[in-house]
């Protein structure tokens, strides 16, 4: 399937070159310009330490086939009646439209029960955080690779993604590690290594988006894209995909019902395996995600580490100033942050200086924090047929 897909894209692109003389992939979807780099596809989840060493530390994506099929909600969440009955009172922030770059400002609140009745008929999708207060969290799990080692204490968000299919993202990158598990449907991921992120043409509106339209790449306007290496990850229901932090990606879901959840987590510098069994064979097949989130202090530290592209031990203050200002900090705030972080005034922020942080309560620190939704639900939610129809 993967070889056939790549061959087809390559043949179409080559035909366009022969017939119209355009660069490979011109005005075609991102990834049409050259064959992809081979991505690791494994049949079983690695141990927590192996996952950390082979993929997290070296910023390497991996597809883990069938890893989500052991989850308790793998079958239940594929049933719309079950979801409506159990979670229909959630007032879900809902996007109108299915291409990410076109839905800014088109988010409105809808009762989840109504969304379930409507999503197959209208251009709707949900891409929101399942907050700790949301009872849906009780049915979410980690794969074996994250079942111990301290991952539970390092969750930033759990993103729920649900549509009738054919949804597409913009070309963007997330600042956290992402374990994305698909419960229904298929997805085609185009992933660019994080080391090449700085080459991408920037968006005028956001520091984590590219200005390129991934559905139709203009190779004349953006010639740098003609030689951009990329990974392809074709995943189906039950698969999980790890995407390293800051790795640009474009995602297109298949044409049928599509549901997934992404665990955004901040990786530690090293794992704490004290909660893991001595014998690797005793690792559980899955572990509950729970309702905890990473502490503000650890979240700030992790954010600072993501600024160091190669996960080395220092960041120049010049680069730091540029990056925090891109995230909305003014010159005064960036200067104050720099003075606190570069405690020895040598022009670099080091891992030791980041680890020395103990207090991030000052008003300058929120530049590193993310806004969160408020969990809301319908009061006096009734399951009677008449009241269901009024939702």
Annotate the secondary structure layout:
Layout: H1 2-20, E1 40-42, H2 48-56, E2 62-64, H3 73-76, H4 80-87, E3 91-96, E4 107-111, H5 112-118, E5 124-129, E6 141-143, E7 155-163, E8 177-184, E9 186-191, E10 231-236, E11 240-243, E12 249-253, E13 258-265, E14 286-288, H6 296-306, E15 314-316, H7 317-326, H8 331-341, E16 348-350, H9 351-355, H10 385-390
Parallel strand pairs: 1-2
Antiparallel strand pairs: 2-11, 3-4, 3-5, 5-7, 6-14, 7-13, 8-11, 8-13, 9-10, 9-12, 15-16
Helix pairs in contact: 4-5, 7-8
Which features characterize this protein?
391 residues, 23% helix, 10 helices, nine-stranded mixed sheet, disordered N terminus, 21% strand, disordered C terminus, alpha+beta, three-stranded antiparallel sheet, single chain, 16 strands
């Amino acid at each position: 399937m993967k070889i056939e897909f790549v061959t087809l894209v390559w043949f179409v692109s080559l035909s366009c070159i022969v017939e119209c003389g355009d660069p490979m992939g011109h005005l075609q979807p991102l990834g049409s310009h050259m064959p992809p780099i081979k991505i690791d596809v494994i049949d079983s989840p690695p141990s927590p330490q192996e996952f950390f060493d082979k993929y997290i530390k070296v910023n390497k994506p991996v597809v883990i086939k069938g890893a989500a099929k052991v989850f308790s909600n793998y079958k239940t969440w594929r049933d719309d009646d079950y979801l409506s009955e159990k979670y229909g009172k959630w007032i879900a922030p809902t996007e109108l439209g299915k291409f990410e770059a076109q839905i800014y400002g088109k988010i409105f609140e809808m009762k989840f029960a109504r969304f379930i009745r409507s999503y197959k008929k209208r251009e709707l999708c949900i891409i929101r955080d399942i907050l700790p207060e949301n009872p849906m969290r009780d049915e979410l799990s980690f794969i074996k690779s994250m079942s111990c080692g301290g991952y539970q204490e390092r969750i930033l968000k759990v993103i729920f993604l649900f549509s009738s299919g054919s949804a597409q993202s913009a070309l963007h990158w997330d600042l956290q590690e992402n374990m994305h598990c698909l419960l229904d449907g298929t997805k085609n991921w185009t992933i660019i290594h994080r080391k090449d992120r700085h080459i991408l043409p920037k968006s005028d509106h956001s520091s984590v988006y590219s200005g390129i339209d991934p559905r139709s790449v203009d190779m004349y306007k953006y010639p740098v894209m003609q030689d951009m290496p990329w990974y392809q990850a074709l995943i189906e229901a039950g698969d999980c995909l790890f995407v390293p932090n800051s790795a640009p990606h474009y995602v297109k879901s298949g044409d049928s019902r599509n549901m997934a959840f992404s665990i955004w987590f901040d990786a530690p510098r090293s794992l704490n395996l004290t909660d893991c069994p001595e014998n690797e064979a005793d690792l559980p097949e899955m572990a509950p995600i729970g309702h905890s989130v990473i502490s503000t202090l650890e979240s700030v530290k992790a954010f600072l580490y993501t600024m160091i592209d190669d996960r080395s031990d220092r960041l120049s203050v010049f680069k730091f100033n540029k990056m925090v200002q891109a995230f909305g900090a003014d010159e005064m705030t960036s200067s104050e942050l720099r003075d606190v972080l570069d405690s020895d005034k040598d022009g670099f922020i080091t891992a030791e200086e980041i680890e020395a942080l103990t207090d991030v309560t000052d008003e300058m620190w929120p530049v590193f924090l993310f806004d969160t939704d408020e969990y809301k639900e319908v009061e006096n939610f009734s399951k009677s047929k008449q009241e269901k129809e009024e939702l």
